[in-house]
Design brief:
The chain contains 3 helices and 3 strands, in the order H-E-E-E-H-H. With 78 residues, the chain is of the alpha+beta class. It has a 3-stranded antiparallel beta sheet with strand order 1-2-3. A hairpin with a 2-residue loop joins strand 1 and strand 2. It is globular and about 30 Å long.
């Protein structure tokens, strides 16, 4: 996975999740649980929509979502 993912905001990641079929299931504090129609779930932790993620946390979320390099290109991240 490429390291040029730095600087992706929570807002941008959430828009990509929603474009890919995920919906907000519930929120607990700064943890937002998104679920896909096929049952796949991912927790996105942020306080403000403009927050960026540490690269390790972002890569972990992308892996949990199951996005490939092709998906990241399709969604405009790379």
């Amino acid at each position: 996975m490429r390291d040029n993912l730095r600087g992706i905001t929570a807002r941008r990641l959430i828009h990509a999740l929603q474009a890919d079929g995920f919906k907000l299931k519930r929120t607990s504090g700064s943890h937002h649980l998104y679920q896909h129609t096929d049952g796949l779930r991912v927790v996105i932790a942020y306080h403000h929509p403009g927050d960026t993620f540490p690269i390790g946390a972002l890569k972990g979320m992308i892996a949990a979502i199951g996005w490939t390099e092709n998906d990241l290109e399709r969604l405009g991240f790379v």
